UniProtKB/TrEMBL annotation:
Cellular component, GO annotation: cytoplasm
Enzyme Commission number(s) from the entry: 6.3.2.4
Name the UniProt record assigns to this protein: D-alanine--D-alanine ligase
Recorded name of the encoding gene: ddlA
Binding site for Mg(2+) 1: 264, 277
Organism: Planotetraspora mira
Compartment(s): Cytoplasm
Length: 316
Protein backbone atom coordinates (compact mmCIF):
# COMPACT_ATOMS: atom_id res chain seq x y z
CA UNK A 1 0.00 0.00 0.00
CA UNK A 2 0.99 3.64 -0.53
CA UNK A 3 2.69 5.61 2.25
CA UNK A 4 -0.14 8.13 1.82
CA UNK A 5 -2.17 6.02 4.20
CA UNK A 6 -5.95 6.33 4.35
CA UNK A 7 -7.48 8.91 1.96
CA UNK A 8 -11.02 10.03 1.35
CA UNK A 9 -12.77 10.61 -1.99
CA UNK A 10 -15.87 12.80 -1.69
CA UNK A 11 -18.54 12.21 -4.32
CA UNK A 12 -22.28 12.71 -4.76
CA UNK A 13 -23.75 15.72 -3.03
CA UNK A 14 -27.16 17.20 -3.73
CA UNK A 15 -26.50 19.41 -6.77
CA UNK A 16 -27.95 18.83 -10.24
CA UNK A 17 -24.61 17.22 -11.09
CA UNK A 18 -24.85 14.47 -8.47
CA UNK A 19 -24.75 11.54 -10.92
CA UNK A 20 -21.70 12.94 -12.69
CA UNK A 21 -20.01 13.45 -9.33
CA UNK A 22 -20.64 9.83 -8.34
CA UNK A 23 -19.08 8.67 -11.61
CA UNK A 24 -16.09 10.97 -11.11
CA UNK A 25 -15.59 9.72 -7.57
CA UNK A 26 -15.78 6.10 -8.65
CA UNK A 27 -13.18 6.68 -11.34
CA UNK A 28 -10.78 8.51 -9.00
CA UNK A 29 -11.16 5.84 -6.33
CA UNK A 30 -10.48 3.07 -8.89
CA UNK A 31 -7.31 4.65 -10.29
CA UNK A 32 -6.04 5.46 -6.80
CA UNK A 33 -6.53 1.85 -5.72
CA UNK A 34 -4.63 0.79 -8.85
CA UNK A 35 -1.82 3.07 -7.65
CA UNK A 36 -1.79 1.29 -4.29
CA UNK A 37 -3.68 3.90 -2.26
CA UNK A 38 -6.06 2.98 0.59
CA UNK A 39 -9.25 4.76 -0.50
CA UNK A 40 -12.62 5.33 1.14
CA UNK A 41 -15.44 6.99 -0.83
CA UNK A 42 -18.11 8.98 0.98
CA UNK A 43 -21.11 11.12 0.12
CA UNK A 44 -21.63 14.51 1.75
CA UNK A 45 -24.43 13.59 4.11
CA UNK A 46 -24.94 13.64 7.89
CA UNK A 47 -22.60 10.66 8.34
CA UNK A 48 -19.57 12.50 6.93
CA UNK A 49 -18.43 14.56 9.93
CA UNK A 50 -18.75 11.76 12.51
CA UNK A 51 -16.93 9.37 10.17
CA UNK A 52 -14.05 11.79 9.62
CA UNK A 53 -13.77 12.51 13.35
CA UNK A 54 -13.65 8.81 14.21
CA UNK A 55 -11.15 7.87 11.48
CA UNK A 56 -9.43 11.01 10.09
CA UNK A 57 -8.07 10.59 6.55
CA UNK A 58 -4.60 11.87 5.67
CA UNK A 59 -6.04 13.78 2.71
CA UNK A 60 -9.24 14.16 0.69
CA UNK A 61 -9.95 14.32 -3.05
CA UNK A 62 -13.10 16.35 -3.78
CA UNK A 63 -15.03 15.15 -6.85
CA UNK A 64 -18.21 17.09 -6.06
CA UNK A 65 -19.46 19.11 -9.03
CA UNK A 66 -21.64 22.21 -8.75
CA UNK A 67 -23.07 23.67 -5.56
CA UNK A 68 -21.24 22.85 -2.36
CA UNK A 69 -18.51 21.00 -4.25
CA UNK A 70 -17.26 24.05 -6.09
CA UNK A 71 -18.50 27.06 -4.10
CA UNK A 72 -16.07 26.43 -1.25
CA UNK A 73 -18.57 25.08 1.28
CA UNK A 74 -17.35 21.49 1.59
CA UNK A 75 -13.73 22.67 1.59
CA UNK A 76 -14.54 24.96 4.51
CA UNK A 77 -15.89 21.94 6.41
CA UNK A 78 -12.74 19.95 5.56
CA UNK A 79 -10.64 22.80 6.97
CA UNK A 80 -12.75 22.83 10.14
CA UNK A 81 -12.07 19.11 10.43
CA UNK A 82 -8.34 19.56 9.84
CA UNK A 83 -8.33 17.42 6.67
CA UNK A 84 -5.95 18.48 3.87
CA UNK A 85 -7.62 18.33 0.44
CA UNK A 86 -6.81 18.55 -3.23
CA UNK A 87 -7.80 21.80 -4.88
CA UNK A 88 -8.48 25.47 -4.36
CA UNK A 89 -9.22 27.18 -1.05
CA UNK A 90 -12.79 28.17 -0.17
CA UNK A 91 -12.16 31.84 -1.00
CA UNK A 92 -10.70 31.02 -4.40
CA UNK A 93 -13.57 28.63 -5.11
CA UNK A 94 -16.14 31.31 -4.43
CA UNK A 95 -14.51 33.64 -6.97
CA UNK A 96 -14.02 30.97 -9.64
CA UNK A 97 -17.47 29.40 -9.22
CA UNK A 98 -19.22 32.68 -10.03
CA UNK A 99 -18.64 32.97 -13.77
CA UNK A 100 -19.15 36.76 -14.11
CA UNK A 101 -16.71 37.37 -11.23
CA UNK A 102 -14.16 34.98 -12.72
CA UNK A 103 -14.46 36.72 -16.09
CA UNK A 104 -13.89 40.10 -14.45
CA UNK A 105 -10.77 38.83 -12.68
CA UNK A 106 -9.17 37.30 -15.77
CA UNK A 107 -10.07 40.35 -17.84
CA UNK A 108 -8.24 42.50 -15.28
CA UNK A 109 -5.18 40.34 -15.98
CA UNK A 110 -5.43 41.16 -19.68
CA UNK A 111 -6.98 37.89 -20.85
CA UNK A 112 -9.57 37.86 -23.65
CA UNK A 113 -13.09 36.88 -22.63
CA UNK A 114 -16.31 37.43 -24.61
CA UNK A 115 -18.28 40.59 -23.87
CA UNK A 116 -21.22 39.79 -21.64
CA UNK A 117 -23.85 40.97 -19.20
CA UNK A 118 -25.04 39.25 -16.04
CA UNK A 119 -28.48 39.91 -14.62
CA UNK A 120 -30.68 38.27 -11.96
CA UNK A 121 -34.17 37.00 -12.70
CA UNK A 122 -35.68 39.84 -10.66
CA UNK A 123 -34.36 42.45 -13.09
CA UNK A 124 -36.40 40.99 -15.95
CA UNK A 125 -39.45 40.72 -13.72
CA UNK A 126 -39.17 44.26 -12.33
CA UNK A 127 -38.17 46.14 -15.50
CA UNK A 128 -39.94 44.05 -18.12
CA UNK A 129 -38.22 41.18 -19.90
CA UNK A 130 -38.98 42.36 -23.42
CA UNK A 131 -37.36 45.77 -22.99
CA UNK A 132 -34.27 44.43 -21.20
CA UNK A 133 -33.71 41.57 -23.66
CA UNK A 134 -33.97 43.98 -26.59
CA UNK A 135 -31.23 46.17 -25.10
CA UNK A 136 -29.02 43.11 -24.57
CA UNK A 137 -29.33 42.14 -28.23
CA UNK A 138 -28.69 45.75 -29.32
CA UNK A 139 -25.51 45.92 -27.24
CA UNK A 140 -24.01 42.45 -27.66
CA UNK A 141 -25.40 41.48 -31.06
CA UNK A 142 -26.13 37.92 -32.17
CA UNK A 143 -25.46 35.07 -31.75
CA UNK A 144 -25.37 34.88 -27.94
CA UNK A 145 -24.64 32.17 -25.40
CA UNK A 146 -26.84 32.03 -22.29
CA UNK A 147 -25.93 30.09 -19.15
CA UNK A 148 -26.46 30.23 -15.39
CA UNK A 149 -23.87 32.36 -13.61
CA UNK A 150 -23.03 29.34 -11.44
CA UNK A 151 -22.97 25.60 -11.97
CA UNK A 152 -21.58 23.37 -14.67
CA UNK A 153 -22.19 20.48 -17.06
CA UNK A 154 -23.88 22.99 -19.44
CA UNK A 155 -27.15 22.66 -17.51
CA UNK A 156 -29.44 25.52 -18.50
CA UNK A 157 -27.05 26.69 -21.24
CA UNK A 158 -27.97 27.35 -24.86
CA UNK A 159 -26.94 29.18 -28.03
CA UNK A 160 -29.25 31.99 -29.18
CA UNK A 161 -29.02 32.70 -32.91
CA UNK A 162 -32.09 34.94 -33.29
CA UNK A 163 -33.71 37.46 -30.95
CA UNK A 164 -36.87 35.33 -30.91
CA UNK A 165 -34.93 32.47 -29.28
CA UNK A 166 -33.70 34.57 -26.35
CA UNK A 167 -36.79 34.46 -24.08
CA UNK A 168 -36.91 30.63 -24.13
CA UNK A 169 -33.17 30.48 -23.47
CA UNK A 170 -33.64 32.69 -20.42
CA UNK A 171 -36.42 30.47 -19.08
CA UNK A 172 -34.17 27.42 -19.52
CA UNK A 173 -31.32 29.20 -17.79
CA UNK A 174 -33.40 30.32 -14.81
CA UNK A 175 -34.50 26.72 -14.24
CA UNK A 176 -30.95 26.11 -12.94
CA UNK A 177 -30.05 29.42 -11.31
CA UNK A 178 -31.34 32.84 -10.35
CA UNK A 179 -28.77 34.83 -12.34
CA UNK A 180 -28.00 34.58 -16.05
CA UNK A 181 -24.72 35.21 -17.84
CA UNK A 182 -25.37 36.29 -21.42
CA UNK A 183 -22.24 36.29 -23.57
CA UNK A 184 -21.41 37.24 -27.11
CA UNK A 185 -20.99 33.88 -28.85
CA UNK A 186 -17.55 33.41 -30.36
CA UNK A 187 -17.42 31.04 -33.31
CA UNK A 188 -14.38 28.81 -33.19
CA UNK A 189 -12.79 25.67 -31.81
CA UNK A 190 -13.90 24.71 -28.32
CA UNK A 191 -11.04 23.45 -26.16
CA UNK A 192 -10.46 22.60 -22.53
CA UNK A 193 -7.06 23.00 -20.90
CA UNK A 194 -6.40 21.24 -17.62
CA UNK A 195 -3.77 22.62 -15.26
CA UNK A 196 -2.03 20.53 -12.60
CA UNK A 197 0.48 21.52 -9.94
CA UNK A 198 2.27 18.77 -8.03
CA UNK A 199 4.41 21.29 -6.16
CA UNK A 200 6.63 22.63 -8.93
CA UNK A 201 4.22 25.27 -10.24
CA UNK A 202 1.15 25.06 -12.50
CA UNK A 203 1.59 23.10 -15.73
CA UNK A 204 -0.90 22.97 -18.60
CA UNK A 205 -1.74 19.53 -19.97
CA UNK A 206 -2.39 19.21 -23.73
CA UNK A 207 -5.58 21.00 -24.81
CA UNK A 208 -8.54 18.76 -25.65
CA UNK A 209 -10.68 19.76 -28.63
CA UNK A 210 -14.41 19.18 -28.31
CA UNK A 211 -16.61 18.46 -31.36
CA UNK A 212 -20.19 17.58 -30.27
CA UNK A 213 -22.26 15.79 -32.91
CA UNK A 214 -25.15 18.23 -32.42
CA UNK A 215 -22.93 21.30 -32.51
CA UNK A 216 -23.56 22.14 -28.84
CA UNK A 217 -21.56 20.66 -25.96
CA UNK A 218 -24.59 20.17 -23.70
CA UNK A 219 -25.18 17.73 -20.82
CA UNK A 220 -25.94 14.76 -23.10
CA UNK A 221 -22.92 15.51 -25.28
CA UNK A 222 -20.68 15.68 -22.21
CA UNK A 223 -21.70 12.50 -20.48
CA UNK A 224 -23.07 10.14 -23.13
CA UNK A 225 -20.37 8.10 -24.84
CA UNK A 226 -20.33 8.60 -28.61
CA UNK A 227 -22.19 11.94 -28.64
CA UNK A 228 -19.00 13.98 -28.91
CA UNK A 229 -15.73 13.57 -30.76
CA UNK A 230 -12.60 14.57 -28.85
CA UNK A 231 -9.11 15.29 -30.12
CA UNK A 232 -6.30 15.14 -27.57
CA UNK A 233 -4.19 17.03 -28.26
CA UNK A 234 -6.41 19.56 -30.05
CA UNK A 235 -5.94 20.18 -33.77
CA UNK A 236 -4.47 23.65 -33.28
CA UNK A 237 -1.36 25.35 -34.59
CA UNK A 238 1.64 25.28 -32.28
CA UNK A 239 1.18 29.00 -31.68
CA UNK A 240 -2.50 28.62 -30.75
CA UNK A 241 -1.70 25.61 -28.54
CA UNK A 242 0.87 27.63 -26.63
CA UNK A 243 -1.55 30.56 -26.32
CA UNK A 244 -4.22 28.26 -24.84
CA UNK A 245 -1.75 26.77 -22.37
CA UNK A 246 -0.57 30.21 -21.32
CA UNK A 247 -4.15 31.44 -20.86
CA UNK A 248 -5.13 28.45 -18.73
CA UNK A 249 -2.09 28.85 -16.46
CA UNK A 250 -2.72 32.61 -16.23
CA UNK A 251 -6.37 32.05 -15.30
CA UNK A 252 -5.37 29.44 -12.70
CA UNK A 253 -2.91 31.94 -11.22
CA UNK A 254 -5.14 35.02 -11.46
CA UNK A 255 -7.98 33.25 -9.66
CA UNK A 256 -5.69 31.99 -6.89
CA UNK A 257 -6.32 28.31 -7.65
CA UNK A 258 -4.07 25.44 -6.66
CA UNK A 259 -3.40 21.76 -7.47
CA UNK A 260 -5.84 21.29 -10.34
CA UNK A 261 -8.26 23.23 -12.54
CA UNK A 262 -9.73 23.11 -16.02
CA UNK A 263 -10.20 26.21 -18.16
CA UNK A 264 -12.70 26.18 -21.02
CA UNK A 265 -11.78 28.29 -24.04
CA UNK A 266 -12.90 29.14 -27.56
CA UNK A 267 -10.19 29.66 -30.18
CA UNK A 268 -11.31 31.92 -33.03
CA UNK A 269 -10.31 31.68 -36.69
CA UNK A 270 -7.26 33.88 -36.06
CA UNK A 271 -6.00 31.49 -33.37
CA UNK A 272 -6.92 33.80 -30.46
CA UNK A 273 -8.22 32.03 -27.34
CA UNK A 274 -11.08 33.47 -25.29
CA UNK A 275 -11.64 32.52 -21.65
CA UNK A 276 -15.14 31.15 -20.99
CA UNK A 277 -15.00 29.68 -17.49
CA UNK A 278 -12.87 27.69 -15.08
CA UNK A 279 -13.70 24.55 -13.15
CA UNK A 280 -12.14 23.94 -9.73
CA UNK A 281 -13.34 20.31 -9.54
CA UNK A 282 -12.93 18.99 -13.10
CA UNK A 283 -14.92 15.95 -14.14
CA UNK A 284 -13.06 12.65 -13.87
CA UNK A 285 -15.49 10.30 -15.64
CA UNK A 286 -14.71 8.10 -18.62
CA UNK A 287 -15.81 10.92 -20.97
CA UNK A 288 -14.25 13.78 -18.97
CA UNK A 289 -11.59 16.07 -20.32
CA UNK A 290 -8.86 16.04 -17.67
CA UNK A 291 -8.32 12.26 -17.92
CA UNK A 292 -8.08 12.61 -21.71
CA UNK A 293 -5.52 15.37 -21.34
CA UNK A 294 -3.50 13.29 -18.88
CA UNK A 295 -3.46 10.38 -21.31
CA UNK A 296 -2.39 12.68 -24.16
CA UNK A 297 0.49 13.88 -21.97
CA UNK A 298 1.52 10.29 -21.28
CA UNK A 299 0.62 10.59 -17.60
CA UNK A 300 -0.96 7.75 -15.64
CA UNK A 301 -4.18 9.06 -14.10
CA UNK A 302 -3.71 7.09 -10.88
CA UNK A 303 -0.19 8.42 -10.40
CA UNK A 304 -1.42 11.96 -11.12
CA UNK A 305 -4.27 11.75 -8.59
CA UNK A 306 -1.91 10.20 -6.04
CA UNK A 307 0.59 13.03 -6.64
CA UNK A 308 -2.13 15.62 -6.07
CA UNK A 309 -3.10 13.95 -2.78
CA UNK A 310 0.55 13.82 -1.70
CA UNK A 311 0.90 17.54 -2.41
CA UNK A 312 -2.22 18.20 -0.31
CA UNK A 313 -0.97 16.00 2.53
CA UNK A 314 2.37 17.85 2.58
CA UNK A 315 0.50 21.11 3.18
CA UNK A 316 -1.04 19.50 6.26
Amino acid sequence: MSDLGHVLVLAGGLSYEREVSIRSGRRVADVLRSAGVDVETRDTDASLVPAVLSDPPNAAFVTLHGGAGEDGAIRTVLELLGVPYVGATPDACRVAFDKPTAKAVVRSWGLNTPDSVSLPKETFHDLGATAVLARIVDNLGLPLFVKPSRGGSALGASIVRTADELPAAMVGCFAYGDTALIEKYITGVEVAVSVVDLGDGPLALPPVEIVPDGGVYDYAARYTAGHTEFFAPARLSEEATQACAAMAVAAHTALGLRDVSRTDLIVDAAGRPYFLEVNVAPGMTETSLLPMAAEAAGRDLGALCKGLLEAAARRG
